[in-house]
Amino acid sequence: MTSKRTTVALRTTAGVLAALLLTSCAAAPPADPERPSPAATSAAPSPASSSTPTQATPTKAPSPSQSAPPAAGRLDGRVIVIDPGHNRNSDGPFIRHKVPAGNGKTKPCNSTGTATNADYAEHAYNWAQANALAKELRERGATVRLTRADDAGNGPCVNTRASLANQLHADLLISIHADGSFSKGARGFHVILSTVMAGGSGVEAESKKLAEQIRSVLTAQTGMPRSTYIGRGTALSPRSDIATLNFAKVPAVMMEMGNMRNAKDAALLTSSAWRTKAATALADAISEFLD
């Protein structure tokens, strides 16, 4: 049995401990004003968990796994093939041998093209304009491939110029050329379309849309007029004998950017500043077509 003295001692000790505990709680340091205490944090409901609707919901930032939509005019993820028409090398047997042109026709593998009256060759213009366009398209994010690697060799022949675009399932193919009409007053650009494309009527329809878009932008931005001698003012020339277009399975057009035998057109075609302007116009048209 516990004695009275022991009982009193135990009660005294318990009282002292209780007093110490109360003193310790009262003396707790104040919370850091920059960091709410855990109790305060848990007591205040977050906007997301509150049952009271807020006046305005802030825009949610995209997560790292979400990609923002491309800016207007951007061509990220697009694949475009540019065909700089003709070749520098006029090596007889190779360049003259006949190849299929589509639609049951044949024609020579290729040629060096036409030239200005001052002997600026079409193949050189085509190469310069194609590279100016490629630069502009790449700056907008597109993957761009050219059908020939330089302006010094032979080939590819016209029946295989569309092969790269077909193999890559490109978004489109654009073939760059310039015309050489000696007709008096003949000047301006036009766009050639195929009426017998390997891709069928759907691709032909898309190619026409591309041609119309290019026509609109070139007219507005470059100072090169629509053709005065091809297309009766439409600047469109449907044909069935252009192998580069006939074998295409993707939207494709061939540009005649101007008439090299016309002095006014030649002055534009030989100007690097104008070629840059034309490249921007073509890229704008392509961006709008693919938007």
Structure description:
The chain is α/β, with parallel strands linked by helices and 291 residues long. The chain is built from 9 helices and 8 strands. Strand 2 and strand 3 (105-108) form a beta hairpin. The longest helix is centred in the N-terminal third of the chain and has 23 residues, at 4-26. The radius of gyration is 37 Å and the shape is globular. It starts with a helix and ends with a helix.
In total, the number of strands is: 8
Helix/strand-derived category reads: alpha/beta
The strand line-up of the biggest sheet is 4-1-5-8-6-7
Shape: globular
Radius of gyration: 37 Å
Tally of DSSP helical segments: 9
What is the percentage of strand-forming residues? 15-25%
Overall residue-averaged pLDDT value: 82
The main sheet comes to:
6 strands, mixed
In N-to-C order, the SSE pattern is HHEHEEHEHEEHEHEHH
Question: Percentage of helical residues?
Answer: 25-40%
Low-confidence stretches: 1-68
Q: What is the rounded distance between the termini?
A: 97 Å
What labels describe this entry?
291 residues, alpha/beta, six-stranded mixed sheet, two-stranded antiparallel ribbon, disordered N terminus
